[in-house]
Amino acid sequence: METLAALVSAATVRIHAPTDGYATSEPGAAGPAGPAGPKPWGSGFFIAPSWVLTCAHVALRGGGGDVGLTYEGGTVRGRVQWAEPGTAGPGGWPAPDLALVRLLEPADHQCVMLTERVPELFTRTSVLYFGWTEEAGEPVEFSGQCSIRGRLGKDGRIRLGNEDEMPQGISGGPVVDPTRGEVIGVLKARRTGQDGGVAVSVDQLRRVALPDGPPRGESHDLYHRVLHAHDRHHAAAHLDALGHRPTWTDVQLGLGAGHGRALSPDRRTELLGLLAELPPPASTTDLVHDIEQILGGRVEGQTLAPRGRRDGLGMLYEGRLGDAELQGILRYAVRAATADHPYVEPGTEAAETALWDWTRTTATGLSRTFRNSLANERLARLRARGRGAAEERPVPAPETEPRASVLLDVSPQFWTPHRYNWRVGVVHPNGDVQPVDEDETGVPAQALPAAVAAALTEAFRRTDGRDARAALHVALRRELFDLPVDTWRVPADAPPLGAVRPVVLRRAAGPDADEEHEDHEVRTARWGTLRTQAMSPVVLDCEDNRHVPVPPEDKLRRLPHPSLPVLCHYADGTAPDGPGLGRVLDSGYDVALWRRQRLGDGRVCTEYHRGVRHAVASASAVDRLPAEIRTLRAGIADGQPEMYWADGIVILFDDPASPLPGTGLVLEAP
C-alpha cells in the first residue's frame, strides 16, 4: 500500500497559472514560482506520457489555453486539449467536468494506471484520493480515504463518503481502488451542504469528441491517442527488466489484484499493451458485435458505448466463471488480431502476430479442443478478410529530380580552443557550389547561431521553392557531432531549423574522411539498396533496455545491405567520437540514427525503438528519411506528445554519390 501511494503521488500534479516571469491579474495566478510555488487552482494526474487528466473547472480557471503543471520532476507548461463542458452552467460545472492537458515539451514522469472495468464493477468498500491543497499559504500534498456510497444519475458521477476531509484544491486528483491498484475516477468536488464528495468515473473519457471524417491514424483520434499511449507505457514499464522503480503491475501483483480472475495483473498489462499496438476498431458497432458474439447475448445497461479495445475487454470481466472467462478474453484477442482496421499503420502486421503469439501462450493450460477452435477461428477470419496479414505500404521509387541544398561547414580552430570557423554555400544538383559567406576569425559555439543567421537566410532564399524548402547539410568533424544545429532558430523568432526543413549531418573532411575508406564500392552498393528496398532499422547498442557494446566492425560489415544502424544509448556516457559511433562510421555506413538526449527515469527504451521502427517504415526508402525526421522535429516543436520520443534525434545522411565539395570551392566567397 505504501508503494501504491508513492506511485500515485509521483504522478499527481498541481495545476496553476503558467509561470511566464510576469504577474497577472487573474485570480489565484502568480508570476515566477517562489519557494512556495504558484497558488494552486486544483490537481490533476498523468495518465499517459505528456498527458494530464483533471477537471474542466480546474483546467479552465485561467480562461482556457495554457496552464502550469508542477510535479516531482519540476514545473512544465501544458495546454488544454479537450474539456467538457467548456463553461460552467447555472448550477456550477455539470458532468463529466473533465479535461485533458497536453505537455508542450518533453518531460520524464510517472503515470497512473487506469481501470478498464465498467463502473458497475467498482469496489463498494474503501477508496483513496490524492491531490494538492494549501496549508499556511504553501502548497502541500494531500491524501485521504473514503468509501463509495453509490452513483448519482447516469452521467458517471460517483458518490463518496465523508470519512476523511476533502479540502480546497484537490479537485481533479485521482481516486484509487486500493484493492486492485488502479485509478477509477477523478475527484470532482465536495458536496456542498452535504456529506462526502463526488468523483467522475474515468469511463467518461469516452465523451472525447470523435474525429471529423474517417480516422487516418492514431493521432487523429484524441481518445485512442491518449489511451493507447497509456497502455503502451505500462506494458513497456512492466517488460523493462532493468527498471529500478516498482511498476504499477508490480504493485498489483503484490496486492493479489488478479486473485480468482482469468488474467493475472502481468497478463492483463501485456494484453492491453498488445491491443494498443493495433489500430482501433473500425467502428463501435463492430466492437459491440464482437462482445455480444463472445457473451452470447445483447449488451445492456451501457450508458456510454465502448470506443476502444480496452473498453471492450473491461466488459468481458466477471461475466462468466472459471475457464469461461479466460476463453472469452482469448476469443476477443483473436478477433482483435484479425479485424478489419480503419487504417493500417507501420507495424500493424507485427502487432497482429504478437497478439496471436500471446493468445496461444496464454491458452496453453486450456483444452486442446478449445485451442484448436481458436486457431480455426483465426484462419477463417483471415480468409474472410482476404489477406493473411495487414498490408504494408510499398517502397516508393526514389526521387528523380535532385534539388539544390544548403551546406553549413563548421570546423574547430585548432590554434584557438573552443572557437570555430564556418562557411555557408549553396550546392546545386550538378555539384556546383555557390559560396554565400564565411568567417575564419573564430566564434564561440554559443555564438554560432547568430553568426551564421544572415548567411543561412540568404542561402535559403536562393534555394527554397514555392512548395518545398531546401535541406540543410551540416558538415562536422566527429568531435562536433553534438552540435544541435537542428534546434537553432534562424531568425531568432522562427521555429527550430529542423522543424521547417530537413537538417542532416555529414562527415567533414579530416582524418576520418570518406577518402580514407577503401570500401567505396560497398558503400555505394549499400546506399543503392537503401534507395530501392525497405530499410530495416537495427538497434546496435541496446538489449532489453541495457546499454551493450556496439558489435565489432567485421560483424557490422556483414549486416544485410538494407540495415539502418540505430544507436539508443549514444548519450549515456558515450563521447561523440567514442568507440560505438566511430565503429559504425568506420564500417562503411553512410546513414544512421541516434539521439543526443539521455534517458530519464520516467522512460524506457521501448518507446524509442517503436518510434524508430514506425518512422523508418513510413519513410520506406532512404531518400525520404530526412523528410520523415523533419516531420518528427516539427511535431516536437508543435507539442505533439507522440513524437517526444524523438527529442534530440540526429540523422547521418552522407550520400557517397554526392561527396562534399572541396574546401577551396566554398572558401572562394567574395
Descriptive report:
- The chain has 670 residues and is an alpha+beta fold.
- The chain has a 6-stranded antiparallel barrel. Strands 7-8-9-12-11-10 form a 6-stranded antiparallel β-barrel. It has a 5-stranded mixed sheet with strand order 15-14-13-16-17.
- A hairpin with a 2-residue loop joins strand 4 and strand 5 (74-84).
SSE arrangement:
Elements: H1 2-11, E1 12-16, E2 42-48, E3 51-54, H2 56-59, E4 66-71, E5 74-84, E6 98-103, E7 126-135, E8 138-152, E9 157-160, E10 174-177, E11 182-190, E12 197-201, H3 222-239, H4 248-255, H5 265-276, H6 284-295, H7 309-315, H8 323-337, H9 348-362, H10 368-385, E13 405-412, E14 420-427, E15 433-443, H11 448-463, E16 472-476, H12 497-500, E17 503-507, H13 520-532, E18 536-539, E19 542-543, E20 546-547, H14 553-557, E21 563-566, H15 579-586, E22 591-595, H16 605-619, H17 625-637, E23 649-653, H18 663-666
Helix pairs in contact: 3-5, 5-9, 6-8, 8-9, 8-10, 16-17
Summarize the structure.
The protein has 670 residues and is of the alpha+beta class.
Strand order of the largest sheet: 1-2-3-6-5-4
Mean pLDDT: 86
The count of helical stretches stands at: 18
Q: Helicity level, as a percent range?
A: 25-40%
Give a count of the beta strands, DSSP E runs of length 2 or more.
23
Report the portion of residues in β strands.
15-25%
Class of secondary structure makeup: alpha+beta
